[in-house]
Amino acid sequence: MSSARRARDGARPPIRLLRNLSSKLAAIPMVLVGLGVFVGGTIWTIVHSFTDSRLLPRLNWVGFDQYERLWNTRRWLVSIENLAVYGIVSLVLTMCLGFFLAALLDRKIRFEDTFRTIFLYPFALSFIVTGLAWQWILNPEFGIQSIIRGLGFPNFNFDPLYNPDLVIIGLLIAGLWQGTGLIMVIMLAGLRGIDEDIWKATRVDGIPVWKTYIVVIIPMMKPVFVTALVLVTSGIVKLYDLVVAMTSGGPGIASEVPAKYVYDTLFTRQNLGQGFAASTMMLVTVAIILIPWAYMQYREKRQ
Amino acid sequence: MTAVTPRGAKPQKALSPRNIMLYGALIIFSMYYLLPLYVMMVTSLKDMAEIRVGNIFSPPVEVTFQPWVKAWSQACTGINCDGLSRGFWNSIRILIPSLIISVSVAALTGYVLACWRFKGSEVFFGILLMGAFIPYQVLLYPLVIILRELGLFGSLWGLVLVHTVFAMPINVLLFRNYFVALPEELFKAARVDGAGFWGIFFRIVIPMSLPIFVVSGIIQVTGIWNDFLFGVVYTRPENYPMTVQLNNIVNSVQGVKEYNVNMAATMLTGLVPLAVYFFSGRLFVRGIAAGAVKG
């Protein structure tokens, strides 16, 4: 690609200034969004997280006070813990389930399109719709719990949305329902990219199919797994709508998440400095996950 | 009947243990994925008396469309009782300008990055891509300030601008990758014929790139329609999009809960992205796979 790029560059007209003018004019939105919003906005938020802004942003420095208060707030600690539990379980299950479904679809089955359509359609729906649908199914009075009790198990208990210890499971059931389809599609694209000869070779060697997947195919799909991983993690950090729709953070504060903490602090409790500190912590979390990945990509490109 | 799998050496029977396991697993997973759609559907067609006595999985004994009518035109959010139709039209009024502007801006930027690079353009592109990973919460308040300065805070156009900003990274990447792969002889020939920056864009690049416009459009329609956070933050209650209104209807604490109306409302909100998904089929899959794997 780079040689083609050079050839095209060479073919450009010699009047540099004029050519650059149109192009630069067209690039104004990109520059404004990149520098003005993404870089400028991030720096603005970080700077103001060191102030005591409340109703309005102001530059009255208080050092790390907001962060200290943040890490002493129970609701924030619960949020972080929820995100960690939800994140790790959802990450593992999404990857496993996504890969498993993709592998099933890749076995040259009939009705592949039908099954793929069924697994992927929840991804088209919003988290609000997802959350409300599952809220109804998990409703203890009418939903799964009452049906299983009606089948002759009067002591059966499954009301995750009303039980602080189980509420994360409720969120996971809905979150996985919505999100695994995407990972399945990405994994399937990866599986389709694997050379048929690999399969022929493993068959000649008499390696069973499941073993081929684990020993040969998965290691070959490392880049796809990394992409899926980054995609799932950046989605998890944003987790907000689903919680608002399903539980509104309840029961009590049992299903609070950082994104909701930031929203509530900024817009309903009007404690701006605290909200900025919390959102800066979210940024730090993402950076910790992404910087190693970006570094890996960069090294691969250079080799 | 024998199904010959191209990978298997010998023909297999349709009911071989392998097939039973394979299709059994597929069907069990399909049930998990179809269950909410089915439950929403049957709930929305029952009346409340039937919901109270029956279970959520049983099909309606007496089919009624009253919950759908009520969800559309009478359901209440706070003091307004004119149903979800208000949110629907708000969402349409947000969707159309956001879609047109965000796709146009992304296509033009992708064109600059693919065909008319200038010094520093790649750096700006890198910054833009980094933006895709910044949690929205970090930028929520700075955007409130920007919109307030522009006099757009609370208006539909403010929300359009926000959607355009956050759509840029992924869509620019999509367009840039597509344009880079177009045959460069075309550009050379066009330049020999005297076409410039805009001439090449409108007469050559756009007509050749219909598929990627459709893919980007699909991403944008579902993304904008399903948005909740930006709708809550950047619009006033009279302009709330459908998702926000839906949540207010279903999770409102006053009054008796009408589960059938709630489920009808939920389905109504999901209909637009579902329709896009079912009609676009493979293009939808291609869009998310391309956006994800290449990115």
Question: What would a concise description of this structure say?
Answer:
The complex is a heterodimer of chains A (303) and B (295). Chain A is mainly alpha-helical.
Explained architecture:
The complex is a heterodimer of chains A (303) and B (295). By secondary structure, chain A is mainly alpha-helical. Chain A has two domains: 1-48, no CATH class; 64-302, MetI-like (MetI-like fold). Helix content of chain A is 73%, strand content 0%. Chain A contains 15 helices and no strands. Chain A has helices at residues 2-10, 16-26, 28-48, 65-70, 74-105, 112-124, 127-137, 144-150, 167-192, 196-204, 209-220, 222-237, 241-246, 258-268, 272-302. In chain A, helix 6 (112-124) crosses helix 9 (167-192) and helix 14 packs across helix 15. The longest helix of chain A has 32 residues, at 74-105. Chain A is globular. Residues 1-10 of chain A have low confidence and may be disordered. Chain B is mostly helical. In chain B, helix 4 runs antiparallel to helix 12 and helix 10 (210-226) packs antiparallel against helix 13 (259-280). Chain B has two domains: 2-64, no CATH class; 85-294, MetI-like (MetI-like fold), CATH 1.10.3720.10. Chain B has helices spanning 17-44, 48-53, 66-73, 85-115, 121-131, 136-150, 156-180, 184-192, 197-208, 210-226, 229-234, 242-250, 259-280, 282-294; strands spanning 2-3, 12-13. The model of chain B has no long low-confidence stretch (mean pLDDT 86). Chain B has a two-stranded antiparallel sheet with strand order 1-2. Chain B contains 14 helices and two strands, in the order ββαααααααααααααα. The interface between A and B is large, with 103 and 97 residues.
Distance between the termini of chain A: 16 Å
DSSP E strands of chain A, number: 0
Give the overall shape of chain B, derived from the CA principal axes: globular
- Provide the CATH topology of the largest domain in chain B: MetI-like fold
